[in-house]
Amino acid sequence: MGIFNRKKLIVTHDGAFHGDDVFAAAIVSEYFQRVGIPVRIVRSRDAALLAQARVVFDTGGLHDPSQLRFDHHQKGGAGARANGMPFAACGLVWQAFGMELCRGDRELFEKVDREIIQYIDAHDNGVATETFIPPTTAVRNFSDVWMILTPTWAEPNSREDMTRAFLTAAAAARDYLVRILKVMADDIAGAREIKRTYDTSAQKDLLILDRDYGRPLSQSTLGPLEGTKFYINRGSNGWSIEAVAVSLDTFEKKAQFPESWAGLKDSELEKVTGVAGATFCHNGRFVCKTKTKEAALALVEKALTLLEPNH
Question: How confident is the model at residue 135 (pLDDT cuts 50, 70, 90)?
Fold first, then answer.
């Protein structure tokens, strides 16, 4: 692909990361390594830096493969697959580079998309996978993460080969175990703090958290609590407002932002909402961003006034 020339800068957003941008970075990195072009991945939202980059994904508000721009946060998103599953950045990047990584094997390309990429896209877009993917699809589960290191029939698989593969998997699992022990201990402590905020808050449908505990922990803690609809916390780039999910087993929200806000950002969102400092509303209508705490409070109070709960 001669369009790459000599530019090597790859940019995605800074702040919190998810499986979407992590796996997209893996795809882009692997592609450039295979074609022998060294790259540098930078995490930033700076417009000047984005303009210099050869590849930009999951930020920038533009999806244009001809310019190697792969965002899905703009109003209207970035399209969907034939089965209706909307693309997130990971899926967009896979569409651009996946066939190269699969060495032109269409069956392999589609299998990876069907069994891995679509699940990542679904999670990032806030949609239920069963709506688009048949339940018989073999998504990689936790055991598969380690079993994937087992030699295939086409690789050397002597007893010694199996032992080496086992030791590699065991080392990776040990690193994971150490990490998960730390994460789970912090989750327990964080859940207690979130619950304490709920218990002491006079307004249950809008909670102001003292810090960013991360989406999974915040959602899993607040979901079962009666009356919760939105929560606000300060992020790395301003303030974030998120709709509370009914549970982590579903993407159904207890409330959503108005349809007219979906996909808007900056001045467009300020004009529609009448809230100065409103900067972004996700197409899925479950996340909004603002510059200040005051703007976040004004935006969510307006949403609570305008919206009917989902149930």
Answer: low
